[in-house]
Every structure is written in structure tokens, then in C-alpha cells.
Amino acid sequence: MSEISNLQKARAAYQPKLPKALQGPVKVVEGAATQSVGNQAEIKELFPNTYGMPVVEFAEGGEAVAAEFNVGIILSGGQAPGGHNVISGLYDGVKSVNPANKLYGFLMGPGGLVDHKYIEFTDELIDAYRNTGGFDIIGSGRTKLEKESQFESGIEILRELGIKALVIIGGDDSNTNACVLAEYYAAKNYGVQVIGCPKTIDGDLKNDQIETSFGFDTACKTYSELIGNIERDCNSARKYWHFIKLMGRSASHIALECALQTQPNACIISEEVEANNMSLDDVVEYIAKIVAKRAEAGKNFGTVLIPEGLIEFIPAIKKLIAELNEVLVDPATGEMREFASKDEQVAFVKGNIAAENLAILESLPKDVERQLCLDRDPHGNVQVSLIETEKLLSAMVAKKLAAWKAEGKYSGKFSAQHHFFSYEGRCAAPSNYDADYCFSLGYNASRLIAAGKTGYMSVIKNTTAPAAEWIAGGVPITMMMNLERRNGAMKPVIRKALVELDGAPFKFFASKREEWAEQTAYVYPGPIQYWGPSEVCDQTTKTLALEHTK
Known about the structure:
Shape: globular
Number of helices: 22
Helix content: 40-55%
Radius of gyration: 24 Å
Strand content: 5-15%
Strand order of the largest sheet: 1-2-13-12-7-6-3-4-5
Structural class: alpha/beta
């Protein structure tokens, strides 16, 4: 490991807080049987050994146990602040059950399990990474665990190391894979438990049981600091409109949270665009009207927040992308088609989609057209982060304003600057909230393992209260699943959580946005605070606070 900074040395001394129920021996309190959020019959048939299990909570007062078990852990998918604390929490929890227990980390994601690449964690190694950002302690990867050959390769190394349970830290796709793996090992009676942990800065892995995914708090505070800095510059120079794209392919939680923290002049919420059946031109006109209104008051400057996945939520383009995803999959293999060249792929797409969708595709700028036809991530999704939506929108706004100026409807000045905040937030040092939350998630996972559970997600609830009052337990992953069309076939996946337009966070934003559009009501949150008054360093996200307001 590289030399440790003074901040890291000081931060290592921070002792994350635990729910009271996890501070000693626990007893398991089981609820009623559960069912999946959708497609109950199909999901039950696919997961007969892990379907219908009860939600569990841990309470104080259980008997101390000294169970012997080794545990493996995998970091899967994109990085999120707090991952190292999940590992340190799991390590401390495993050792508290029995000091002889061992924790192994599989290197560079699920591929480490398949390829038998791992390390054993030690006190020295864990102590060097407590309360730090990133996933660099063992690395992460995006290998999908979905084939029987992978499962069987995994069981070989698990048996060799005497591993009783595997903890997978990931988002909705990774935890879907965890659920599939838990079912497979249960069906084979292999005696290996699988536990998931909810990770994604996008905030779209949440439901009635999962209040928030870890990393969301820190990432939003990091982005909001940067947005606040830009707003202050914007209000100082008073000559630029800043178009700021933010992470969030499948939902607008980050954009909404950052808007609540910084009060920009405009923030587009993808879910609202879809609900109102807005076209790309409708979105452009909405922004242009705000620009023109501020120009009338002599304010030729402002800030606009744009969610990364906006393009996929515009109904006409969403329909186009759905067909593109279909034609790019070979029905015989279920895999992406291969082409000799990019031009051949574009030509194939244009020759095999409906005329209505072809017209939409060809109406877009050429670079966007090619990106929609070509780029896919490992799950077959359009790589919307590569589409420079912020530049596309500002160019279209400029064109509309020029047309209005020619008609005598606009007399202001418009000059744009562009930003995309993504990697800046994924590996930030975790906030106090994420440091505590993640440590609790990991420690809690050790208790789920000791209780013999498999196919469960580690969950910590009531997190707007002091940490001692947090509720620890587990939720069957099958409870969160439904069937969705992926790569041309219906597959079981965890349902993503979108911004709820009737939810308190969005309603509060909607009640304020006209005021923020006309006024310069910027808020400058400043850097993440680790030490100081509780109202500064221990606050939750605005989203979570509003959702829990009675």
C-alpha cells in the first residue's frame, strides 16, 4: 500500500458507531413469509430454495456463540465510498464470533472467485484501510456470475479455503447474481451461504426494506461541494451557463439530492420527463425559457443539473433504445451480435429497426446516433455516460435562443460551460454517515452468517435516528425481484428504485424550483465535514431526511 496521508492516519482512528442490537450477542426475530415485488409465480419457480423466506431483525439478549466459519468477500461493480468499512465491519464481526475465523477477499471482483485469486485479511491490512474511500484493498470487477461452470469453479476454492459463506457487495445486478448463486448452492446442498450488501452511489437500490444504498450519501456531498464551487464562480463571473451532468443512468436520485443541497436554476428529473411524455425539444425549451427569463432581469448566467441517463427516459428515444437492444442481440445465442466494423454495425441497425424509430435516430446529432448504435456495457445497456448530454442540450438551447433572438423574443447573451461529475465521487473518503452505515452493514452480515441465513441482503434501517437506534437484520433478495427484458429475453432482476414523483423529496424540490430558477438562491455546501458540530458532520442526505419526516 502507498504511504498514508495525515488525513488517512487521523481518519483511521475514527470508530464507526454500531446499532445497539449488534453491540453484543443477538437473537433472531423472524417476520412473516415474503413474496417477490412482481412475477411471484415465475420468481418462486426460479428460486424454489430461497423464495418466501421471512424478513429477519436482530434484537439484544441472545446467547453468545463461538461458531467456526471462514468467510469470503467480493467487491462487484463500480466503486462506492464506504466499501472498505463494509469489509472492516465484516472482519470485526467474524472475529468477534470466533477469533480463529478467517476472512478472505477475492481479487478484482467476481472474476477472482472464478479464477481462484484471493488474499487473507489480517489486522494490519484491515487497519490500514478503515474509513477510507475506494475499493483498492482487493479491487473490483464486473464479471457476471451466471453460468454453472463459474459456480462450480467457485465452489472448488471455497471448499479449499474452508469458506462457509460468501458476501457480495454490489448493486442491483451484482445482488441479482448473488441471489442466483445462493439458489444454486442451496439446490446442490453445497453448504455455502451467500449474503448481499446494497452498494451503488446512484441510489437506485432501495425499497421499503433498504433505506439507501451505501456511497450515495458521500457521493452526493462530494458532487454538491463541486456544484457549490461552480455556482459561486458562476455568481462571481456572471457570464456563463454551466451545464452539469451527474451520475445516475437508471434514476435521477443524485441529481435530485444535489439540487436539494445546492438550489441550482434548473434540474431535469428523468422520471418526470418520462411521466409527462416530454420530447427532447420539450426539455430544451424548458431550459431555454429559464435562460430567457433570467436574461430579462440581466442575469445571463446560471446552473443546470442533468442526470446521466436522461436520454433513456425521453419516451421516443426510450422506445428507440429498446428496439436497438433487441436487434443487436443474436436470438440464437442470446449474446451481442459481432460485426466486422462499426460502420457495418450502424448499417445493420438502420436496416433492421422500425421506420418510426429510424426517423428518431436520424434526427439526433451524428455522434449521438453512432453511440446509441454501438456502445453497450457488459449487461447490454447503452453506455449513456459516453453520450455528452450536457453538450447536446446546451447546443440545442443555444440554437433555440438564436431563433428567438431572430424573432425579437430574446435579447440576452448565452455562453455555456460543461461538466460531468462521475469518478470524482465514487472513491471519496466516506462521510460519517457512510462510515457508520457501511461498518454496520458488514458487521450485520457476520450475524446473518452466524444465524445460518443465505440468499439475504444485509440491511440497516431507521438511519435518520442516532446509530444506537438503528435496526439491523436481513431481507430475502428474492423479495426485491421481478422479471425484466434483458438482451432479448425475460430475466429475474432486482427492481430498480426510481425517483417517486409523489414522494416528499421530489415534491419539496417541485415547490421550490420556480423560485430557484428566477432568483440566484445558490447554496454552497463546502467540503464533507468529518469533525465538528453534529448538525454539520453527521447529517444525512436531504432525500433521506425528507422521506422520514413525519
